Amino acid sequence: MLHDTEIKSVYHIAICGTGMASLAAMLKSRGYRVMGSDENVYPPMSTFLEEQGIPIYEGFDPEHIRSEQPDLVVIGNAMSRGNPEVEFVLNEKIPYISLPDALREFFIRGRYSCVVTGTHGKTTTTSMLAWVLQSSGFNPGLFVGGLPENFGRGFQLGDGPHFVVEGDEYDTAFFDKTPKFLHYMPDLLIINNIEFDHADIYRNLDEIKTMFRRLVRIVPGRGHLIVNADDPVACEVVEPCYSNLHTFGRSEAADWQAVDIQHTEQGSRFAVRHRGKTVAEVDIALWGEHNVQNALAVFVAAQQLGLSIEQIQQGLRTFRGVRRRLTRIGEVDGMVIFDDFAHHATAVKETLKAVRSHFPNHRIWAIFEPRTASAKRRVFESQYYRAFNDADRVIIAPLHRPDKVPEPERLSVERILEALRGQGIPAESMAPGEPMLNYLSQHARPGDVFLFMSNGDFNSMPTKLWHVLNHKRG
Q1: What is the Cα–Cα distance from 189 to 113, expressed in whole angstroms?
Q2: Domain boundaries, the chain
Q3: Which helix (H) or strand (E) holds 462?
């Protein structure tokens, strides 16, 4: 455990990562002297850190650390042995820590920790729970890997009793290969769903299940486990359970059910049923049954935290979502452009399903970039054969940095395209850039819906297409 009185200055190696920059800003707000370094220093993170008054060294050089003489160094997840600053820290025996451990020791310890996990929906559900608490006057702490529209940034110190954090199953640091979520001391834990993912660090689903079991075991007896009853893997990992268990979902087996789901122009509406009795009607400004599930999980969590039904309804109704989760870029001549973070096949499928439910008679273009370590692997390839069923036209970009995956393990874009064409879905491959823009603008027609899906910036394709279509109209 860290002792605040001994630490006055904190240096961050790889400070320009989204999480690291947020942590740096939180520490600066707490009164620590904060600085850091990174190899790629550019907006928006460089601008954000500059606005916070946090100096950034460009490049990794031991002299940066020697000159600053920090009391503690936070080493980012992307760093490994061989990095000159990492080697200097180890050689000089400077105290160092991972981001998750720093988050726990400086901000979570001593507060009621609400951890949101799952292969899909973590960022939205975390942000939603934090907003329900915020709108009810609880002013929670928040740390999330996205940009919630209600907060305007992915973190909040808060002075309330709760800290809400996105619990990622990815590993912590080169010196700690356990999942990040094992560091957050959950008092309340949401498990949304569990699928095989992160094939670069896990060999199979069983290894992921083992980590979730470890997480479940550290929830206190008086704590709360909120688990998706519709997901058999999530139900499996919570047995045996030593905490207060609450299940949610669509099935009759769930303690808390979402029923009478309606999709409206503004979002979604559903009723909450608890053990056979309808207790509330809920409206959310989000599309898709997956977001109904997210909102139901938050409803259950907020009930355990003592919020009234009216407070929960108000918070859910006024939650504005997370940037790049079906973000509407614009509309031109009845053509609508969306930008989304979907990359796992299940997320692609659910996002398209949500768009189809709101545009049942429109031509939907699905434009997808296989970019993550998992999305680029052959083991997931067959899942993409059916993930695009709700699309009318599909474009898949070539693998981003294919060299990062051994050739025998690589997903084949061409095989996916062949499978889609075999189902009667026109499908092409082209790189994000001028050829893609020209193709889309030439084939676009009024009423088309363009859904871009990537966990990267996709070469700003959604915004560029909006500008091209606007220019054509002019």
Answers
A1: 8
A2: 4-97, 110-318, 327-473
A3: helix 461-473
Structure tokens at 27: 């520490």
The whole model's pTM is what?
A: 0.86
Query: In whole angstroms, how far apart are CA 384 and each of 29, 352, 398, 416?
Result: 44, 12, 14, 7
Q: Give the single-character DSSP code of 7.
A: -
Report which DSSP code applies to 397: P
Residue among 125, 134, 152, 173 nearest 20 (CA): 173
For domain 327-473, the question of CATH label 3.90.190.20 is answered with yes
Query: What whole-number distance in Å separates Cα of residue 361 and Cα of residue 241?
Result: 46
Residues 93-133: pLDDT tens digits?
999 999 999 999 999 999 999 999 998 889 999 999 999 99
CATH 3.40.50.12500 describes domain 110-318: no
CATH code of the domain occupying 4-97 = 3.40.50.720
Q: Are 11 and 74 in contact (CB under 8 A)?
A: yes
User: What b/e string do you get for 194-230 counting C-beta neighbours within 10 Å, with b at 16 or more?
Assistant: bbbbbbeebeeeeebbebbeebbeebeeebbbbbbbb
**pLDDT score, position 471:** 75
User: For residue 367, what is the DSSP state?
Assistant: E
Secondary structure (3-state) at 79: coil
Residues 6+ positions from 76 with CB-CB distance below 8 Å = 12, 13, 14, 15, 17, 20, 99, 173
Provide CB contacts within 8 A for 12, sequence distance 6+.
Answer: 20, 23, 24, 34, 35, 36, 37, 73, 74, 76
CA 24 – CA 362 distance, rounded (Å): 45
What phi-psi label fits residue 292: left (phi over 0), alpha (psi between -120 and 50 degrees) or beta?
alpha
- Banded model confidence at residue 242, pLDDT cuts 50, 70, 90: very high
pLDDT for 64? 97
Nearest residue to 103 via CA among 72, 74, 133: 74
pLDDT by residue (tens digit) across 194-232? 988 887 788 899 999 999 999 999 999 999 999 999 999
Give which of 211, 209, 192 is closest to 126, Cα–Cα.
Answer: 192
pLDDT at 372 over 90: no
